[in-house]
Amino acid sequence: MIAVVLGVENYDMVFEYSKRLLEYGFKNYSIQPVIAPNSYITSVPVSNASGNHNLDILASPDGLECLLPNNSKNTDYEIERYIMENIEAPVKKGDVLGFIEVKRNGITIGKVDAVASRNVEKLQPSEEPQSVIIKTVADPVFKKVTTGALIFMLMFLMLRFTLRRISRSLRSKDKKIFRP
């Protein structure tokens, strides 16, 4: 604190007046917390975000302390929020997205940054179905499984066709033998 005494007629009174001013200042004023560190300010939407689109905005980890009269109340000062509009992903935890200004009697007594509470990742567009199909068909495991299944089905059909021919020929022989 600085005390300035001007216009004192008696040089010996300068010390006394300075002492009174300093005592008055220390007795009636103190540094008080106005905005707590990491306190919730508001929630804002984030465009192009993957997952939760709402982001909580917090006061900076430092918070805000101001020199105020000891008898001051929360209603003695105004808090104005200036938060960015149209916030787009990606956002990192701690990114400054605005600020809070504290005014008393129309005079700014302090500012504190408004920061992001968490990371918000950018929404990645999904792949087109055609590219997914092309990747699947080009996969060597898919090719081996498909080739094996086709060979198995071909062998099954050949076996079935062969067994049917044998069965028909046996039936036709049986019919010729047992005719009266």
TrEMBL record:
Spans traversing the lipid bilayer: 145-163
UniProt GO BP: proteolysis
UniProt keyword Transmembrane, yes or no: yes
Zinc-finger in keyword set: no
Molecular function terms from GO: serine-type D-Ala-D-Ala carboxypeptidase activity
Lineage: superkingdom: Bacteria
Sequence ranges assigned to domain Peptidase S11 D-Ala-D-Ala carboxypeptidase A C-terminal in this UniProt record: 29-122
Gene3D superfamilies per record: D-Ala-D-Ala carboxypeptidase, C-terminal domain
Keywords annotated in UniProt: Carboxypeptidase, Hydrolase, Membrane, Protease, Transmembrane, Transmembrane helix
Protein name: D-alanyl-D-alanine carboxypeptidase
Source organism: Acetivibrio straminisolvens JCM 21531
